[in-house]
Amino acid sequence: MLTPGASAGRDQPALVAIDDALAGTGIAVERVDFPYRLAGRRAPDKAPVLVGTVLEAATTLAAALGVPSRQVAVGGRSMGGRMCSMAVAGGLEAAALVLVSYPLHPPGNPDRRRVEHFGALDVPCLFVSGTRDAFATRDELEAATTAIPGAVTHVWVEGGDHGLRGKDAAVAGVVAHWLTSR
Fold first, then answer.
1. Which residues are CB-contacts of 134 (< 8 A; sequence separation ≥ 6)?
2. Strand order in the sheet with 152-157
3. ∠ Cα 113 119 123 (to 5°)
4. Could you say which of 2, 66, 109, 159 is the most buried, measured as most Cβ atoms within 10 Å of its Cβ?
5. What is the block-wise mean pLDDT of the chain (182 residues), using blocks of 10 residues?
6. What is the secondary structure of 39-88 as a DSSP string?
7. Hey, which residues does 73 pair with through a beta bridge?
8. What is the DSSP letter of 101?
9. Cβ neighbours for 62, distance < 8 A, ≥ 6 positions apart
10. Cβ neighbourhood burial of 30 (10 Å; 0-12, 13-18, 19+)
């Protein structure tokens, strides 16, 4: 299950690329829109609404596939991935987390880290980030993720910024390889 970043919807190019890369692998993909996007608003809903959307979508996908939610990998880009990680930390049973361009902190505010829930992430986690991401340097993200009890894999996209523009195929390949090798 894939969720978009704050300024995008379910058809965000990175999510579509991941969906396409998983086609034919036997892994079903559901791309999800958040309520604010469905309502035509630009500003994201508050975290409880976004996390609730993740919980509902993961539960619905698991039921549609006839599997328990602990067999569904969840994740997404930036804010969407963060909301998925918060849902898992809050009790959503999931197979794994896929976090593309995780927004560790707002740009220019490295002291405002979004990591309070990391200690509750006891699932395998894939972090795919650009080496020029203003939301988290390599050192910052690698240090922060040591708090995660689950297995953590970092893949760094050379020259990529937070948007990972022009890198969708590379990101999709990394995600598809990681998920299919589990």
1. 107, 108, 161, 162
2. 2-3, 73-77, 96-100, 125-130, 152-157
3. 115
4. 2
5. 96 97 96 97 96 98 97 98 98 98 96 97 98 97 98 97 96 98 92
6. TT-SSPPPHHHHHHHHHHHHHHHHHHHTS-GGG-EEEEETHHHHHHHHHH
7. 96
8. S
9. 68, 69, 71, 72
10. middle
106 C-beta neighbours (distance < 10 Å), count: 13
Placement of tokens 């804010």 in the chain: 79
- What is the predicted pLDDT for the residue at 7? 85
Structural contact between residues 94 and 70, judged by C-beta atoms closer than 8 angstroms: yes
- Give dist(CA 21, CA 169) in Å, integer: 8
The single-letter code of the amino acid at 105 is H
